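subagent[fold] <- orchestrator: predict structure for attached chain, return tokens only, no commentary.
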Amino acid sequence: MYKKDMYNRLLNWTYVAIMGLSLSSCDKDKVDVSIAAPLMEHELSNSRIVMFNQQYEQVVANGKMVTNIVRPYEGSEYFPDRGMYGGIWQAPVWEIPQELFEEGTIDFYMNKAIDNGDQNSLNFTVEEDNTVHLDHYIIPPLLDGSAEIVTTERSVASSSKPDHFKIRVLNLTRKVSNGNVIEDVSGPVTLAYADGSAVHKATTAIPVDNGGSEYIELPYGTYQFKLLTADGRQISGNNIENDNGDNLVISIDPATSRATTQTGAGSALLTYAPIKTYQPGGVYTLVVCPMQFGGTVQNGFVRIVDNIIPINSAYARVQAVNAHIGQLVSFYVNGEELQSNLAYNNYSAYKIVSTGDVKVEARAASGEIIASTTSHVDAGANVSAWLYTNTEGIAELKMVFNDLSGVAYRGINSDDAYYNKQTYDMPLAFRFLNLSADFEQVSFTMNDGKSLLTDNPFNLQYRGYTYAKDESAVYNLEPGKIPVKFPYVYFHFNSTTPFDLFVFRSNAGTIPGVWANDVPVFASSGFVDNAELYSQVGRTVPTYETGYYTLALIGRTGADVPAAEKAKVWKVKHNK
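subagent[fold] -> orchestrator:
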């Protein structure tokens, strides 16, 4: 086994070599003593190390220093990004190069960047196995002061259906505290959708250290998966996977695991659960284990990619939305049924389609085609086919392309535009549509006519910059006209202040216009799909839940209009 004294000798030899180079140089011709970071390609083994903490940043493999011990944050051959393993917003997975094995074995010695003694060191051995793919999880020192290595097999084979993905749950939870300051979320866990409903019996009540649940197959798409304890409490995710994320979730409320952020806003009333796209052919593990949340160690979950995900060049997703009053409608995509007998004020699940020209038809109960449209759909597109009644009283289909990427653009000018966008993986994002022929133009505002663009205290911000907006997204929307320039309004997830959304009758000369008091306000609580997810475990119901939404003005106005057909703002949620 590799010992600490060899680590110290390596450290001393490296410093001596660099000092020698420095002393032999002169003022005119400086010697560059920085350690090179070549982007070398190595044949990878079937084994990986997974670590979610900064506990063991320096790595020695069979006596070879593979990290950059002298100049941290400058790349090394095996860690070209920063020269060390792990760290905040760094990839937690290290695929072990095949060449590091000697006679099928690697003796690892790992330590902190600055050696503070044996309390920060870890010794373990990895045996080569070419028949299976193995992950070696490092569990940090907890109550007994010692670290653990947990080895588990993973699958790299894609799902049996090419437009699906595979996912499993790996439960490595531990008790992290003897007191009551940090809530205990250890024990069996269940994979759930955003509304708290269980995904599958195979991923329900997964016990600790059982090697992981079986992989299940689901249609590719955008999901906000959650992990629940046996009594239904939510376990926090961690944004360590997202290297271009909102950088907001750095700590949690220890008593509830709800999110706290850099903004100092306190508890958000929401438990952090990132919204991610799961690609066709992808294989994923949601692992839950002890990890760092700022100064707190708590069990949290992270998505781990288990295979090399193929590029999606073949599939898109389409759903039907019925805002057409008066009849049941069946929807067809390229001649195949998407949804039968869809009632007004309802929408279908998504159907995966091949890329290219996509024809959507709306058919009455008699089979008559009452509306149709054709659009070119690229790979990865998310499309809603909205059926509504236009100003001529005729049923019409509009194809609306939704953006579920979480990418917001900022007003920063730079040479390469690197800082001109930011990815947020848990926003409240919504866009507006006017699909009521009774309103020639409408504008949408917050409470008391305040602008969603300039007076919104919940706008996403990052390092002092807010995201790009356009007035056409909220002002003077005409029936059937789809805003396309910066159409989304983005909110932080950390607000605890309720708000309402108002509709105004407006025109080019009057913004926001006259309040349409015949249209009920849309309360922020309308973004909460299942209040019992919180109340049944004694938690305050949040102001809103995050996700991607369309808010459409639908229906009619007038004293003789039936209650079910009266104008209202209708919510359609696009992630699950």
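orchestrator: received. Logging for downstream: The two ends are 48 Å apart (CA to CA). Residues 6-39, 243-247, 262-266 have pLDDT under 50 and may be disordered.
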